[in-house]
Amino acid sequence: MAPAKVSGFYKHGNDWFFNAGLPSDLTIIVDGVNFHLHKFPLMSKCGKIASIFEELKSIHDKIFTTKLEEFPGGPDAFLFAAKFCYGIRVEFTARNIIMVYCAADFLEMTDEYGEDNLLLKSENFLHKNVLRNWKDCILALQSCESCMPRAEKLHILKKCLNAVSMMVCTDPSLFGWPMMMYGSLQSPGGSILWNGINTGARIRSAESDWWFEDISYFSVGLFERLIKTMEERGIRCELLAGAIMYYARKYLPGLGRWQSTQGGKARTVASFSLTPATVDQKVLLESIETLLPKKKGKSFCRFLLGLLRVASILGVNQTCQDSLERRIGMQLELASLDGLLIPSYSDSDTLYNTDCVERIVRHFVSLESGLTLFSPPSLDLESSPSSEPSRKVARLMDSYLAEVASDVNLKPGKLRTLAEDLPESSRPLHDGLYRALDIYFKAHPWLSDGEKEELCNIIDYRKLSVDACAHASQNERLPLRVILQVLFFAQMHLRMALAGCLNVLEAESAPTGQGEIAGNATAGQIVQRDGWVTVVRENRVLKVDMEKMRSRVGELEEEFSKIKQEMKRVTKSHSSLSSPRLVARKFGCKLLAKSSDAQTDVAGSTGPTPRPSVEQACSSRNSRHRKSFSLF
């Protein structure tokens, strides 16, 4: 195999040679690679080599061999400097500028050892080309890993980080996309063109997160340095949190499996030239935790819960895990149920990590109790706006208890501890607790009545709704003593609700001023007895129906009285008439005569008129009654 020659230099095995036709009189070893060179070109440009040669001059006569320990940039950087010393044309790029700069400083290639030496050229290229260009600055930072200590000492790293931070703070629309480095040539579809070739990258609008993708190619240490630099320059914590979340989701695959999928950002022109960094996930997570700002939000809380889940898998240090739990506890009211359902990855028998959730709840309670100490003493804790987070957490924990209650390995003591961690005032209703206990009793049928009664002591039966009381009174899984207590309080609540309804009715029937005062006071009492308001509302509807029925009965009574008066008037007019035929004629009726009556009249007219007897009077009255009855 023929040795590869590069610009007068060629490599043979692990050795580099310069094709000058003269034997080598200087051997320099860099990271196990031997460079067989000549003294004069290097000593004329490098102060370091000149000083070493002066030290070894008295010992060696012909060939000098030296080893450069911890050379910045390694063999590649030294080869670049050697080419420059031999007068071979070299090319400065964003990828090699930092290591060349550090190598020139290490070799002391200043103007003292030659005009326009390598150190000056490197410094000029860095300030005039790299620090003014977003893409080149990103590429330079990514390629400085091999010479990070030297770059830090020379403040090169700080200059690049400040340049990136400044460009992030500046609106990219003022400079083009981004920072006037990609030109204005675009394809008809809007993509960026490079030498007439469609790169696939699209020009971005002035979005605040346009830089997330490019800095996500940095190593963990460099990314950490950049975030701290941005924080010092006053970049908003929302942007910093967004960049950290984007970086974490990229290198922690377990973080994205359970979270809602987010569309990846389109690759920029800079990112096409970058290669993803190789990171240690455990180190990454511990570093990210220290970088996270003090921020609250639903998406941020969900991200913290995802970090905690991955942390339990990776086995991070206890300090990192405690800090994550404390951060989540500060905004537990924004958490979701699926985020709290963290599987148990340890040797625990339980399905979910209930110990972790218990610590999170205690952090929340300690924070809320601290806020309560500074609240006005006259403020009602249950109705104050500051109690809303506690009520949200109580509802969340009730749902969490209902989910973990089906775990057969969950101990009764742990369930009770999780339920009692929150203060009593955070639960206006205990329906959620009752539901969780019912699920737990169903999944643990072997529990004795004593154990069930002990668990049921966490429920305040006065805070059960009508539906919960109705269900509990017929629940065969509950102990008999608990059912009796539920029935007792259900009757008591019903009596109080009915009494409140009657008070409202009396208040409405009272005068206006007194009725409003009494009605407001009674209504406030009823509202406090949540769960029984439905009964009062149904009673009010019943009262409206009763009022309608009462008005209808009044109308019917009025019509009946009118009919009765008409009947009396008709009766008076009938008694004043002498002949029934007049009455019949008045009402338009025809009087029907019977044969027996006619015969009686004829017989009475022909015979002598005797003295009327009792029988005749009776028959006369009967006939008159029949005549008058036929009128109707």
TrEMBL record:
SMART domains: BTB. Signal peptide: none annotated. Keywords: Coiled coil, Ubl conjugation pathway. Residues 24-94 form the BTB domain. Residues 595-632 are annotated as: Disordered. Residues 209-493 form the NPH3 domain. Residues 622-632 have a biased composition (Basic residues). The keyword Coiled coil applies. Residues 539-573 form a coiled coil. One of its GO terms (biological process) is protein ubiquitination. The keyword Membrane does not apply. Pathway: Protein modification; protein ubiquitination. It comes from the Eukaryota. Residues 596-608 have a biased composition (Polar residues). Belongs to the NPH3 family. This is NPH3 domain-containing protein.
